[in-house]
Prior knowledge:
The chain is α/β, with parallel strands linked by helices. Helices cover 34% and strands 13% of the residues. The chain has a 3-stranded parallel β-sheet. Helix 1 (18-30) packs parallel to helix 2 (48-55). The radius of gyration is 15 Å and the shape is globular. It starts with 17 loop residues before the first helix and ends in a 5-residue tail after the last helix.
Amino acid sequence: MRGILKSATVMFGQRLDPGVFSRAEQAARRCDLFLAIGSTLTVEPAASLCGVAAGAGAALVIVNADATPYDGLAAEVIREPIGTAVPRIAGQLLGEAG
């Protein structure tokens, strides 16, 4: 096989696929919990999904070392390493003792 292999990510300066973003907005409107992990939440329109979810009543949890523009909307802001925070959050969501 020849060619460039690319993951399903959007690089800086690339446009988001409108269909993919529309589905993400729908999911954000319907979720109960929205986790934003390891993002400065400054790149739009993806960052706006935090506001969509919180506006629809979801609990927004932000795990990031630094402050983000969406911290004020968050039910919880976690300032610990992702490798520590994510397993703890997953354990809590699965009902394990944390």
